[in-house]
Design a protein that fits this description.
Elements (H helix, E strand, L loop, with lengths): L10 E7 L5 E7 L22 H6 L17 H23 L1
Antiparallel strand pairs: 1-2
The structure holds zinc ion.
Length: about 100
Amino acid sequence: MPAGKHKSRTFRRVHVRTPGSKSVVHYRKRKPKAAKCGECGAVLKGVPRERPYKMNNMPKTKKRPERPYGGNFCSKCMRRAVITKVRTVKKAEEKAKK
Ligand SMILES: [Zn+2]
């Protein structure tokens, strides 16, 4: 019989094969929710779902895509943000010329 704290679904269950070829259940803490896009709320790809202690030891390049706004915006919103930024800069330059 599992201990009282292991009867609820607070912990996730991981089936582990022991060296004696027995299958046992290990209880681990649940992973945090997936990272979301700051603009549209879509789930970000390339951003791992891990607990903070694992994220701290992970290299920066494995934590988010290496592009502008990587890890904050999804690729669609990133493209839109870059295009609007370039357009506003161009408009400002044209105004400065006049
Ligand atoms: Zn988005």
